[in-house]
What we know:
The complex is a heterodimer of chains A (301) and B (264). Chain A is an alpha/beta fold and 301 residues long. Chain A has helices spanning 23-31, 73-86, 100-111, 128-131, 139-152, 168-177, 217-230, 244-253, 263-267, 271-286; strands spanning 2-3, 6-7, 12-14, 36-38, 55-58, 61-64, 90-95, 117-121, 157-160, 182-185, 189-192, 195-196, 201-202, 209-212, 235-238, 257-260. Chain A has one domain (2-294): Alpha-Beta Barrel (TIM Barrel). Chain A has an 8-stranded parallel β-barrel with strand order 3-4-7-8-9-10-15-16, surrounded by 8 helices. In chain A, helix 3 runs parallel beside helix 5, helix 7 (217-230) packs parallel to helix 8 (244-253) and helix 8 crosses helix 10 (271-286). Chain A starts with a strand and ends in a 15-residue tail after the last helix. In chain B, a hairpin with a 2-residue loop joins strand 1 and strand 2. In chain B, helix 4 packs parallel to helix 5 (188-200). Chain B starts with a strand and ends with a strand. Chain A binds chain B through residues 18-29, 40, 46-49, 51-57, 59, 66, 69-72, 75, 86, 196, 198-199, 201, 203, 205, 262, 264-266, 268, and chain B through 1-3, 5, 7, 38, 40, 42-47, 81, 83, 214-215, 217-222, 224-231, 234, 255, 257-261.
Amino acid sequence: MRFLGKEISTPLTLASGILGISFSSLQRVIRDGAGMVTTKSLSIEPRIGHEGPVIAEFEGGLINSVGLTNPGIAEGLEEVEKFHAGIGGVVIVSVFGANAAEFVQLSKAVNESSADILELNLSCPNVTDEFKRPFALMPDKITEIVSAVKAVSTIPVLAKLSPNANDISAIAKLTEDAGADGLTMINTLGHGMVIDAVAKRPVLRNNFGGISGPCIKPLAIKLIHDAYKVVDIPILGTGGVSTGLDAIEMMMAGASAIGVGSAVYDHGLDVFKKICDEMETFMEVHGYAQYSDLIGILEEN
Amino acid sequence: MKCDRQTLPIAAIREENASLRTFTFDGKLNAEPGQFIMLTIFSQGEKPFSILDVDKNTFEMTIKNIGPFTDSLFKMKVGDLVSIRGPYGRSFTRHSGNILMVGGGYATPPLRFLAKRLREDGVKRLVTINGARSAEDLLYVDDFEILSHQSHVATDDGSLGHKGTSVDVMESILEKESFDQIYISGPEKMMKAAVAVAKKYQLPYEVNLERYMKCGVGVCGSCVMDPTGFILCMEGPIVDNETLDGLEDFGVAHRGKTGRKTVL
């Protein structure tokens, strides 16, 4: 199948933030059954991110406040070159800038690398103390950043949206109008907080973090479907997918490819193979010839 | 879901030497030798530590004061609360024949834990080598003597035992005697040297590796080793000889707090 013009072996994609520092872990995820991998969000300068604990578990998933830990764009792109030297597979390079000018600078660097697709992380919830309101909640910022990046990018551009936006249909539409080639949705939800009752303290060092995992899947599916109805550009769906059926539901809602993140915590890297196998079984039983036959076929009641 | 978080008061603190203390907790930890835990100091941070010992209702970690985090820990008193999650990672594989342990510096606590378990298992013969810079840096000399059929001590300055490194002693032992399994835990350069000796004698070994870890559960990617994408916190920290052969980073490079790779 194809996604944004790139041939991919499966619709499964490593979501940004999971493992994606080194070429070796990205290659490994491709070998384990993903068609695409997303790097951690790269910034101009290296970032340490937040102090630990950066991850806390609860009944329905995880909260995290990693805080955009990354080795910086220069070193990050070196890993992308090493990745391509060793294996096929599509690399989405995620970038995070403090403003439109930084996004443009980062996008130029990514375009000079062997990256296949660029993803603009407009919606990280974990750096609001540093960068204030996520761009994905501010329509004028989305338009400014996406159109500025599109002016310099020859590779396809994905904009990563936030589930915290009030009107996702309007946001999705204006992101398309600004020139985005596709949408990645959704980023983590909230902030949420998990409390250590014995200590009377939040578990995360940063007190709160973005919510991910199975509990956000119904929200992701609804928001993806809302967006699918108003845009013509493809959607990379992410949010709580851990089974083949989850992925199929999300594709039926309108996603063209599926990001997997928190499920790696529960199931390890075998989760990609597991989801692929489960998808194939479902498709065989229910008579779908190819992944693309699933996209957006949902009929509402 | 798999997170076993326990928030506990420190039950006891024991001074091992000028820079090492053993912290005891009254709690259950279903850990095997070589595994580690993540320890949180509230308002400070979270770091991985290897486990010294586990009993029915207590567990212990011997910790070296190496920076701001451990400095805070060393200022804490019995009764102060910390949070612990784990145990995580792959433990040493237990063997029962002729066993050689090669330890260096403050990385010997997991070997002491393993020695205890191997003796309980009825190991045929256990030879241990405990090396450090100087006599005051050696840990658990008496314990290793009790637990081993034969125990050796090496110090760089000759202040106790053989003058030289634990790897020197390892070489001289292997000239005379063969082993079914070697366990190595120490600074990475020392382990690299020990691995070279084990390879020369074509003996199987396991090493105890250390990399910067943030999540401890195979998600953040901080501890990944090239070129295989080995996830040390989950698939290590104990690594067997076959796997280690694939890890070009061993003894060469590691990733820092930003994920940036630097030469060791």
